[in-house]
Amino acid sequence: MAPIRGPSSLSLSFPSLLACVANSSSATPGGSGDAMGVSHQPPPQSQQQVRFRLRRISGDGACMFRAIAQGAQMATHGKAMSLESEEVAALNLRQAVVRELRRRREEIEPFLPGIAADFDEYCRTMSNPMAWGGEPEMVMAVHVVQRPITVYHVEDGQLAPIVTYGDQLLGSAQPISLLWSGAHYDLLVPELAAGTAGGAAAA
Fold first, then answer.
1. DSSP labels for 27-77?
2. Which GO biological process entries does UniProt record here (predicted)?
3. Which residue(s) pair with 52 in the sheet?
4. Phi/psi of residue 55, each to 5°?
């Protein structure tokens, strides 16, 4: 990747930050997703190019929760939280996600083979501030923040979407975009919002 400047709000200009994504205004609620609103295939029609700025997220075991909380903040208010506020928001999001897991146990168990016997222990583990979040938590986070979440990775030098959670919300709420690098999540800020949100370092 190109050289990076700044401690928390970063801008990269290389091609991998230019992505071709579906136009949310034409998305059909629940269109290509499964029963949990997860879509692994972005719709081929009505695609547009979107440029992102990369905002680094601390790698403390809570990067997924931090990135989602910060993304929701920036999408809603147009500016970033301080690192201290981000940490608190991430913990609050984690707790809300665990509550959703417990509330939607019957809904989610079929998608997690073998978890039924240890579900309570799983929820206790996930309550640990340092526990890594996974796909079940991503799905529950959509219910909490009421925004779709799209995960990208870099493929052949280009930014490519892997999966969208909560695709039934496309068209009604701005998605939160995350960059997955194999063992860590960072936040992708849409270029239009970057002028006000992306440039706001921890305050």
1. PPTTSS--TTSEESS--SSSEEEEEEEEE----SS-HHHHHHHHHHHHHHH
2. endoplasmic reticulum unfolded protein response; ERAD pathway; protein deubiquitination
3. 190
4. -115, 115
Other beta carbons within 10 angstroms of residue 128's beta carbon come to: 11
Q: How far is the C-alpha of 1 from the C-alpha of 24, rounded, in Å?
A: 29
User: What tens digit of pLDDT does each residue of 113-153 get?
Assistant: 766 678 888 999 999 999 999 999 999 999 999 999 999 99
* Catalytic (active-site) positions: 60, 63, 184
The range of the structural domain enclosing residue 84 comes to 15-198
The confidence band for 179, taking pLDDT boundaries of 50, 70 and 90, is very high
- Structural domains in the chain (count): 1
Give the tokens for residue 65: 């929760």
149-155 vs 176-180, strand pairing mode: parallel
> Which residues lie below 8 Å from residue 150, measured CB to CB, with a gap of 6+?
21, 161, 163, 164, 165, 175, 176, 177, 178
